[in-house]
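Q: Two folds, back to back.
A: First:
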Amino acid sequence: MIRSLRSTGADLHLVLDPLRLAASVPQAWRLLGRLRPAVIFTTGGYLALPLVSAARARGIPSLLWEGNVIPGRATAAVARLATRVAVSFPPTLDAFPGRSFVSGTPIRSFAGIDRAAARASFGVAPDERLLLVFGGSQAVARITTALDAALERLLPDWRILHLAGPTGMPAALAIRERLPAALAERYEPTPFLTDRMAEALIAGDLVLGRAGSSTCAEVAAVGVASILVPYPHAAGHQQANAAWLAGQGAAIIVPDGELDGDRLVAEARALLDDEHRAKIVAAARALARPGAARLLAEELLAMGEGRALPSLTGTAG
């Protein structure tokens, strides 16, 4: 097993991991010789190094996609071997000069979803505002704690749909039990939405969540105001993502350590102003790249077929 490059312990693995990586290159060489792929697609990371290195040695083109503003060290290393690099955010181009292009982040489709119908399906009346709260793939204690402290002040103005995750549901249900009956019906915790997530984003007037690449891309594509609370670890990737959106006027950013009930109430109350939200929505939509998946697919097909690359000829769809 090879650890992440973020591992810092000075132990035996510090010596063994490079040796393991080097030993993986001939294995990757043999694998590529057997499979004979026309092109390699990777999202980077430490374990992509042997495969992309072997692909380069065999003359197989490769496309690396980086979803965050600041690439990780392992991804930067892989990028030096890749044929082309696609990035989600324009500032990331500077990390890969001459070989990169902006693709955006592949996201789910929002085509054909009617906002009025989506809102009705979640019990949101035309004159109500919906706050959608989520924290990524797992329940986020910081967000749930702040929401708990703010709920009784938020619910008179907002209906709240809270994606708490399976592990966060007991706490969310306990929160609802403590609410007065008149407010409890306006707060709906759910473990997940599976295929209804697109409808929830379309129905929402405001999103509260983390700042992963997909979240940033989806709030822009949908055109919804957002309060982003970046995950404070993982080399600060989410902080940079959120800071870029906020710098374009496309989101509100609240540092993880500053999010509490009072701060959440203050930010949400400011966003009750329809004109204020509309400015954020317009800025977010201006950054949207909903065709990212198609663009990446077109680039990969061209690489595999030896055609002129859409990212170089300006013909990407």
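A: Second:
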Amino acid sequence: MQAYVMRADGNQSVVDLVEKEVPEPGEAQVLIRVRAAALNRGEFIPGPGLHGQSATPKALGIEGAGEVVKLGAGVTEVAIGARVMARFPAAFADYAIVDLRELIEVPDSLSWEEAASVPLTFMVVYDMLVSRGHLAAGEWVLVTGASSGVGVATLLTAKALGAKVIGISGSAEKIARLKSIGLDVGLQSRADFHAQVLAATDGKGADLAINAVGGSQFGECLKSLAFQGRMAIVGYVDGVLKSEIDIEAVHAKRLNLFGVSNKHRSPVQRAEQVPGFRADVLPHIAAGRIRPTVDRAFDFEHLAQAKAYMESNQHLGKIVLRGRTF
């Protein structure tokens, strides 16, 4: 079978297409034929990055969708031919192994490309909004990097849960597109936006801020929070890893700041949220209240072009690699 790996070349990441043996599923695993897999910016960052990168080539892809083609020993919970989506390693390949605990049934309404854009991104959003963010209907959510895959998924999920959303983007065109899918307030800014957030919320501030950019927007997010507000830190694509903290504001306003990452979680810990996601978010997806936003899908042979398109920051939502036809 064919699969993609990435190696570091100085400060650059290089993607290679290689031949590999089709893997065999073990206990509590299934083998799937990958029909589509989504790109995520963090996995392409060389050096320490968001997910780490060594000199050894790394299998690429961390979420996708496909058909179950082989069951591991003792697996009875899923049938051959089932349409599934999941978080799993080495997703940019013809075939991949998936942990049974991560499997999510693909709703009939979703295409392969849409399904591939759900597992990692929407699970992260579920973690931020529900598990850690305790979002309630009627609350205000502030989203930086609102046009990113995580940003759009946050908007769609928050609206389905009854919240109101303020999105930050440097592009007026992207703000207009976000408003067409439910954004309540769009702010064309990358700095000094807290006064506009306060004005949009009648002086209250955001109940929950999703910082998907990094340290360059940390201070503004903090200033934008309401009393007992929460802030999720989900990435640092700006490369800014440090920021000052207004301790007085955190103390007086009883703020809660938390990180959202799977980097140090065990497979068991990561899988703990899957049942809650199935119960709280998947029904909204199945009913069409949440429609995953795929900006562009590339053929399997064109991962390098898909990566370049992602790095150009032109997209809104997810970029997907289609499975190879054979």
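Q: And?
A: The first strand starts at residue 2 and ends at 9.
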